[in-house]
């Protein structure tokens, strides 16, 4: 599914084009990925691993000063889009601790 201009307009927070390491928990272990962009409410994860829209993911984002653990929901993917510049998926953050959210907010404010 491609993200349209209307979908981008629905974003709550602006994305920052920052690359961070992302650990994606799978059935066989942790898959190492990276971000294309990130905000305090979601991110685009670059990966060749396929995940369905609506799938919940356990994520660990490696920030400069500490890892942040959260749950995210896949809201769109580049799967099937051969013209996509980067394979991957858009994820909205659904659950995080107040401490991890504060660490993410502080990291983004420094960018």
What does this structure look like?
This protein has helices spanning 5-9, 98-109, and strands at 21-26, 29-38, 42-46, 56-62, 67-77, 88-96. The protein has a six-stranded antiparallel β-barrel. β2 and β3 form a beta hairpin. The chain has a single domain (5-103), classed as Beta Barrel (Thrombin, subunit H), CATH 2.40.10. By secondary structure, the chain is α+β, with helices and mostly antiparallel strands. 15% of the residues lie in helices and 43% in strands.
What topology emerges from the helices and strands here?
Blueprint (H helix, E strand, L loop, with lengths): L4 H5 L11 E6 L2 E10 L3 E5 L9 E7 L4 E11 L10 E9 L1 H12 L2
Antiparallel strand pairs: 1-2, 1-4, 2-3, 3-6, 4-5, 5-6
Name given to the CATH architecture: Beta Barrel
How many DSSP-defined strands?
A: 6
Kindly report how far apart the N and C termini lie.
Answer: 29 Å
- State the helix count: 2
Which parts are unreliable, with pLDDT below 50 for 5 consecutive residues or more? 1-9
Please estimate the helix content.
Answer: 10-25%
CATH superfamily: predicted glycosyltransferase like domains
The CATH class turns out to be: Mainly Beta
Oligomeric state, counting identical vs distinct chains: single chain
How much is the average pLDDT? Answer: 87
Main sheet: strands, sense, barrel: 6 strands, antiparallel, barrel
Order of helices and strands: HEEEEEEH
Structural class, please? alpha+beta
Trace the largest sheet across and list its strands. Answer: 1-2-3-6-5-4
State the domain count: 1
CATH fold field value: Thrombin, subunit H
Beta-strand percent range: 35-45%
What form results from the Cα inertia axes? globular
Cα gyration radius (Å): 13 Å
């Amino acid at each position: 599914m491609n993200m349209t201009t209307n979908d981008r307009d629905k974003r709550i927070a602006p994305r920052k084009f920052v690359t961070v390491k992302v650990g994606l928990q799978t059935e066989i272990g942790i898959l190492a990925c990276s971000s294309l962009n990130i905000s305090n409410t979601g991110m685009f994860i670059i990966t060749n691993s396929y995940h369905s829209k609506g799938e919940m993911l356990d994520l660990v984002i490696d920030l400069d000063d500490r890892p942040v653990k959260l749950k995210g929901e896949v809201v769109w993917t580049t799967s099937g889009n051969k013209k996509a510049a980067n394979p991957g998926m858009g994820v909205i953050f659904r659950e995080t601790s107040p401490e991890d959210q504060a660490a993410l907010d502080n990291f983004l404010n420094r960018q």
